[in-house]
Amino acid sequence: MSIEPNFLHELVGSMSQGAAGNPTVAMIEAAFAHHGLHWRYVNMEVAPEHLGEAVCGARAMGFRGFNCSLPHKVTVIKHLDGLGQSAEVMGAVNCVVRRGDKLIGENTDGKGFLRSLAAATDPRGKSVVLFGAGGAARAIAVELGLAGAKQFTVVNRSEQRGAELVELLRDKLRLTARLVVQQGDYSIPPETDVVINATSIGLYDGEVRIALDTATLKPTMVVADVIGNPPRTRLIRDAEARGCRALDGLGMLVNQGVIGVQYWTGIEPDAQVMRAALERALRL
Ligand code: NDP
Question: By alpha-carbon position, which residue is closest to atom 1 of ligand 1?
Answer without folding.
Answer: 134
